[in-house]
Automatic annotation (TrEMBL):
Keywords: Lectin, Membrane, Transmembrane, Transmembrane helix. One of its GO terms (molecular function) is carbohydrate binding. Residues 118-230 form the C-type lectin domain. The keyword Transmembrane applies. The gene is asgr1. Pfam families: Lectin_C. This is Asialoglycoprotein receptor 1. The chain crosses the membrane at residues 49-75. PROSITE patterns: C_TYPE_LECTIN_2. The keyword Lipid metabolism does not apply. InterPro entries: C-type_lectin-like, C-type_lectin-like/link_sf, C-type_lectin/snaclec_domain, CD209-like_CTLD, CTDL_fold.
């Protein structure tokens, strides 16, 4: 190596003549070193900025995915609610239509000769005394059934039809429950029972008739009496 030259390391320093003032040489070396350090800091800063930018892009992408999902969920929910509301409105309109039709039928219904009309139904008194099953068979032969009493108004109407008592009605024991002939269950704590009834006296009183003062009483089904039919 030439004595008049000093070879620097591989960081990029150029060969600097030894004849230069040592102070200037040191200053130049410091300047070069600072420039290299600044370059490294600049590259690190650029890498950090790039990482921040990539992170922001990922976050924005995730936000867009979540936003799209929420929008889809919102419109799916709204669509489902609209369908449910439409279905409920349709059912309500159908119910209103049926009620109107039933009211019209009640108003224009004409009962056959010998039948009495009340609240859209027709009633008939079977005057021949029969047991409960026979009385029901007679009602069915006239396209009707033993009466199902749904209200106090209907009970009062039946009481007004005749001064006589003891008429079969369409209520019968079904094991440990009471059931009307149309299939609906009856709660014995309700209705128009005589005081202390039903009591199933003798363990065989499975049918119901109107008895004293036209109130209800459970009775042996083979007992012979008149009946009320309804259609």
């Amino acid at each position: 190596m030439d004595r008049g030259r000093h070879h620097l390391d591989s960081e990029g320093y150029e060969n600097i003549p030894c004849e230069e003032n040592p102070t200037e040489l040191v200053m130049r070396m410091r300047m070069v070193h600072e420039e290299l350090k600044e370059g490294k800091r600049s590259r690190r800063t650029q890498r950090k900025l790039l990482m921040v930018l990539v992170t922001l892009l990922v976050l924005v992408f995730m936000f867009l995915i979540i936003l799209i999902g929420l929008v889809h969920l919102y419109y799916s929910t709204v669509s489902s609610q609209i369908k449910q509301a439409d279905s409920q409105i349709s059912r309500a309109l159908d119910g209103i239509k049926q009620n109107i039709l039933q009211t019209i039928r009640k108003e224009i219904r004409v009962c056959d000769s010998g039948w009495k009309k009340f609240d859209g139904s027709c009633y008939y008194i079977v005057t021949t005394k029969k047991n409960w099953m026979e009385a029901r068979a007679i009602c069915k032969s006239m396209n009707s059934d033993l009466v199902v009493i749904n209200s106090e108004r209907e009970q009062n109407f039946l009481e007004s039809l005749t001064d006589e008592s003891e008429f079969w009605i369409g209520l019968k024991r079904d094991k440990d429950r009471w059931r009307w002939v149309d299939g609906t269950l009856h709660n014995p704590s309700e209705g128009f029972w005589m005081k202390g009834e039903p009591n199933n006296s003798g363990g065989k009183e499975d049918c119901v008739h109107m008895w004293r003062d036209k109130k209800w009483n459970d009775k042996v089904c083979t007992f012979l009496q008149k009946a009320f039919c309804e259609k």
